[in-house]
Amino acid sequence: MCGIVGYVGGKEAQPILIDCLKRLEYRGYDSAGIAVIGDGIQVYKTGGEIAALEAGMPTMKGSAGIAHTRWATQGRPTTENAHPFEGCEGKVAIVHNGIISNFMDLRESLAAEGHEFSSETDTEVFAHMVEAELNSGDLLTAVRKSLKLVEGTYAFAVVADGRDEVVAARCESPLVVGLGNGENFLASDVTALLKYTNRVVYILDGEVVRITKDSVTIVDAEGKQVTRNPERIEWSMEDAEKGGYPHFMLKEIFEQPAAIHESLLGRIGAVDGDEPFITGNSFSSVKIVACGTSYNAGLVGKYIIEELVGIPATVQISSEYRYSAAARENPLVVLITQSGETLDTIAAAREARKRGNSTVAIVNVMGSAITREVDHVIYTRAGPEIGVAATKTFVTQLTALYLLALELGSKGRVLTAQAKHNIVSQLRNLPRAVQDVLNQADTIEAVAKKYSEARDMFFIGRNIHYPIAMEAALKTKEISYIHGEGYPAGELKHGPLALLSKDSPVIAIVSRDHTYDKMIGNISEVSARDSPVIAVASEDDTEIGKFADDVIYLRNIPSLFSPVPVIVALQLWAYYLAKERGCSIDKPRNIAKTVTVE
Ligand code: M6R
To answer: Ligand 1 atom 9: the closest Cα is on which residue?
Structure first.
């Protein structure tokens, strides 16, 4: 996946394009490039991050252009494979996010017509196709006609020599138009545009859009004009900036009390029936489908739903769900995705609909693709998350799952008035419990530093804290590059114990509930193999210090809710490990924030 931007207006395009592009760097940073329409098409591209592009590019005069930051899928991350691509005659330049699945066939027939290619990418064919079509018409029509031959997923943006316009098209890759005064913008994500405008129009699958300085024209695949009202984005520019923190990830970790609060705002009343999230109640089970961190949130959701609603909940990875056999039951399918653009999860939503199931999406980005694929949407309201590692979107996904379970439990008359009252007051306390953890960031940093040279780390938890162990392992491996594994504590003796030694610290989540004694037993098994134990435990646990080498103490709250403060402590743990190891925290190697490929 990649980030694309476009600009047409009265100002110099180059600085605006670069500024917008930098806000999309989380989508990929293997190579970058820019094309500006001025005296001919001026193109500059390079391998590496946007900083390398900025450092090397010449000044380009002109008030229309496109730019791209790449996460390689087809073709290595080299300068030759960087976007934009031009046709043989240099009359058009294009940028692309997605995959042209039939590019080999297209390339063969273009080559037979005499076209020459300069890259290994799937994208380049489209530049040649549009250029050939442009000889007989306008740019919008040339793009629309060329798209008829393309199979796959895309957001394209195209410029042509001598024309102050950008034409773009979308199929399963995000694309949004930003509306300015005497200028218009295009981007893969609204966060790229917030400095310039908060009025946007989302482009839908199959549509082609043409922006000029003063106009935006959207047509469908057949060329029929489409009218769509602009939306106003409430996120401020500041929301998308680092706000004085060294990394977006740390800023986003510290925003979690406010994010949870925002997520709950006005919704607790709704649980009692004012404004239900879910209508239609014919399901007797829940299936949660998601990827990565969102999947881990789903695993926590299983425990929450089974406890509060009393119906079975299963959790499946999106790319597995899609190809699994349909069960005979008719579950409510809950799709969790912070971006709302993860292709595996969107495909799963379509599959769920095909199976006739009610669908609900828990999503952070307003107007994202998944919102159009489901029956109900619960926004997590975490604000923009820029760090590749999901943090505040994870805790707000959990918040949304508590609210969903509360509503289903209320509707199903499983919860008494007293139980609901208790749950609501625990939810209201969550921002404070998280703030308590943040206040201990220095302590967590000091412990993390001690173990930052480890090569492997194991995270163990029981019951609802088992998925938190998995999420902590994912955070750790993703940003610190330490190999991390999350296990149910009782499972170590069935294999993983063989890997333990004094060089493999074990982080144990110790809950003051019915699992406590068993967890102490598991910690003893670990200590017997000389592995250092770091416990994350309740502040009133006076025994744990005897069993663990280090303890991170957290406020004692009921186990059903403690996944939230515990994961915040372990996000900090991962963050400080990565910081100590000098890693690229906001943009870890090989991964990107939004995964719009299958
Ligand atoms: O946008 P999504 O929630 O659908 O993304 C799913 C995963 O790619 C994502 O959660 C990924 O695992 C995180 N960036 C890890 O921190």
So the answer is: 292
